[in-house]
Amino acid sequence: xxxxxxxxxxxxxxxxxxxxxxxxxxxxxxxxxxxxxxxxxxxxxxxxxxxxxxxxxxxxxxxxxxxxxxxxxxxxxxxxxxxxxxxxxxxxxxxxxxxxxxxxxxxxxxxxxxxxxxxxxxxxxxxxxxxxxxxxxxxxxxxxxxxxxxxxxxxxxxxxxxxxxxxxxxxxxxxxxxxxxxxxxxxxxxxxxxxxxxxxxxxxxxxxxxxxxxxxxxxxxxxxxxxxxxxxxxxxxxxxxxxxxxxxxxxxxxxxxxxxxxxxxxxxxxxxxxxxxxxxxxxxxxxxxxxxxxxxxxxxxxxxxxxxxxxxxxxxxxxxxxxxxxxxxxxxxxxxxxxxxxxx
Length: 344
Fold this sequence. Notes:
Blueprint: H1 5-12, H2 16-23, H3 31-44, H4 50-56, E1 62-68, H5 69-77, H6 83-99, E2 102-108, H7 115-126, E3 130-133, H8 141-150, E4 154-157, E5 167-170, H9 173-186, E6 192-196, H10 202-217, E7 227-229, H11 234-245, E8 253-256, H12 259-272, E9 281-283, H13 289-293, E10 300-302, H14 305-320, E11 327-329, E12 333-335
Parallel strand pairs: 1-2, 1-3, 3-4, 4-5, 5-11, 6-7, 6-8, 8-9
Antiparallel strand pairs: 10-12
Helix pairs in contact: 1-2, 1-3, 2-3, 6-14, 7-8, 9-10, 11-12
């Protein structure tokens, strides 16, 4: 028979109210009381009843992650999976497990006419203790309004707009893109193409700005036909790569705003018989597992998605204890592999 809160209170030698205060991480709970209750919980292998908590108005012990429905589903339909979502889940799950929380991933239809009604209903049904917002939802004013009205704490991953709203975890996408572009320039490349991400993602704009800023810093201008917008999918990268590499005066380097599109460019190059990096250098952004296994392995920017998700989850949990942190910046790294080389 499963242990109950009464069993925990009896074993710890404290009141049920004291157990509830510890489990709900209420403030002003002594370390000694926390230790007693935690020892009893572990000894009895006690698992709180989430439904009962919700009915009682206590903590739900649920963290929800809102992810873009369209892009997530497109990745799965393609059969290539979703490295971003996998890393996000891993980072958040590790922190949730440590704290005795559960993680729920919800697909959110960005821009849908029914978005508000669906999110309001979802928040009322689940009553999450906090929400992780991924792009583009992390920059959607309507999503932020809904969460603020509901009084649900949230952390925004990769937000680029209206930065005073909510907690956020971010990396410097603009500087990372500038660093990659500068790296290609240092290798001797001057005709560098950019396969940008979709305009709905603020990070796409930041990476585009970094790319253009690095070119300008080196007195280089970009030709309009070397800028192509993709949608963060392999197929859009393949189409962009085919377009760029079929041109008579093709670029000597292609920088894609994420690894999936960069892998699509590699696929297009192989189909057209253009050697990488001999005929064209190709770089990405993310450092997904696929980037290490491609042929050749992909030079890319390491975006620490798992670390960002873990940090965001810790911020939500700290906020529940009254220890709110407004913002955390995580470092990126330029990872050199074999898909880019000096122009000869």
